[in-house]
Amino acid sequence: MKDVAIIMGSISDLSTMQNTIDTLEELKVGYEVHVISAHRMPQEMINFGKTAAYKGNKVIIAGAGGAAHLPGMLAATTDLPVIGVPVQSKALNGMDSLLSIVQMPGGVPVATMAIGKAGAINAALMATRICALSNSTYLETLSEYQHKMHDKSVESGKQFE
C-alpha cells in the first residue's frame, strides 16, 4: 500500500527528500516517489494531483526549491493533504522556497515544514501521523520512533554524568 506520495520538482531535490524516504522506511509506511516539475511538466503534475486519491494515496509530500510552486499547485489539484518541504537553494539559502510554499492563498492549504533536512524528516512524521488516523500500525511505529528519540537523547547526556 502506498499511502504517501513523495513528489520532487527536480532530481536535484533528492538529497533533501532522501531524508523523507529514509524516515518513511524506518516507520514502515508505504510510499511512492515521482519527479514532476510544476514548471516543466504542468500537465503531468495536474494529472497526478487529480488521480492521487483514486490510486490510494492519502497524503502528498512535495519537495521543491527556488520558486517552489509544486506543493501549492498540487494542493490546488487535489483534496488530499499536501505537505510542502522547502529545499535549500543556492540563491537565497532556501528562504525563497519557504516563502513560496508557506504563502498560499486562503482556500489552498499546504502544511509547510522547515527548510531542508529537518523539514524533510518532519514531513514524513506528519504524513505518518495523518495516515495513523486510520491505521493503528502506524501509531505503534510512531510510538517506537519517539521512544528511540527519547532513549538517544538520554544516552547522549550520560557522558556528562
Automatic annotation (TrEMBL):
Assigned keywords, A-Z: Isomerase, Lyase, Purine biosynthesis
Where does the source fall among the domains of life? Bacteria
GO MF terms listed in the record are: 5-(carboxyamino)imidazole ribonucleotide mutase activity; lyase activity
Q: Name the chemical reaction catalysed here.
A: 5-carboxyamino-1-(5-phospho-D-ribosyl)imidazole + H(+) = 5-amino-1-(5-phospho-D-ribosyl)imidazole-4-carboxylate
Task: Identify the residues that the record assigns to the PurE domain, covering every copy.
Answer: 2-153
Q: What does the record give as EC number?
A: 5.4.99.18
Its UniProt pathway annotation is:
Purine metabolism; IMP biosynthesis via de novo pathway; 5-amino-1-(5-phospho-D-ribosyl)imidazole-4-carboxylate from 5-amino-1-(5-phospho-D-ribosyl)imidazole (N5-CAIR route): step 2/2
What does the entry list as the binding residues for substrate?
10, 13, 40
Q: List the Pfam families hit by this protein, alphabetically.
A: AIRC
GO BP, one example? Answer: 'de novo' IMP biosynthetic process
Q: Which SMART domains match?
A: AIRC
What the protein does comes down to: Catalyzes the conversion of N5-carboxyaminoimidazole ribonucleotide (N5-CAIR) to 4-carboxy-5-aminoimidazole ribonucleotide (CAIR).
| PANTHER family cross-referenced by the UniProt entry | PHOSPHORIBOSYLAMINOIMIDAZOLE CARBOXYLASE, PHOSPHORIBOSYLAMINOIMIDAZOLE CARBOXYLASE CATALYTIC SUBUNIT
Family membership: Belongs to the AIR carboxylase family. Class I subfamily.
Q: Provide the protein name.
A: N5-carboxyaminoimidazole ribonucleotide mutase
Taxonomy of the source species? Bacteria, Bacillati, Bacillota, Bacilli, Lactobacillales
